[in-house]
Q: What sequence folds into this?
């Protein structure tokens, strides 16, 4: 699948102002405020912008940092990394490979087996669970 290219105007029509600020302008939500920072539901986390599957709930862990944290993506090919020197720090930014959405940052202080912590903004994600809809439960 090739790169998804849209104008800022197109993204603004599809995303909330907060989602646009975070995913397209490299913003960050405040810790302990995002929708998924403490979620324990099972499912798959997708890119809010393009729908690319990014992280499985089995790889989510409580890092105590206030953002959803994962020790690995679904596959390494769905995440791109870039050096980030903003705010006087040296960090590694993570982006969706398909649409270049800003997701967050990756740090070398996660649990085994990878030792990595993919620290992701909730506004960059959409969780799809395995739970059935009421229509599927009742004939």
A:
């Amino acid at each position: 699948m090739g790169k998804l290219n849209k104008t800022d105007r197109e993204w603004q029509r599809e995303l909330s102002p907060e989602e646009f600020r975070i995913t397209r302008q490299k913003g960050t939500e405040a810790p302990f405020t995002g929708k998924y920072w403490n979620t324990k539901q099972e499912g798959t986390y997708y890119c809010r912008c393009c729908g690319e599957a990014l992280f499985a709930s089995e790889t989510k862990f409580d890092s105590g940092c206030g953002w959803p944290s994962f020790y690995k993506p679904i596959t390494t090919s769905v995440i791109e990394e870039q050096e980030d020197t903003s705010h006087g720090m040296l960090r590694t930014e993570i982006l969706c490979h398909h649409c270049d959405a800003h997701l967050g940052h990756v740090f070398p202080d996660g649990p085994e087996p990878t030792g990595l912590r993919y620290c992701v903004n909730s506004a960059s994600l959409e969780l799809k669970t395995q739970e059935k809809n009421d229509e599927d439960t009742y004939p």
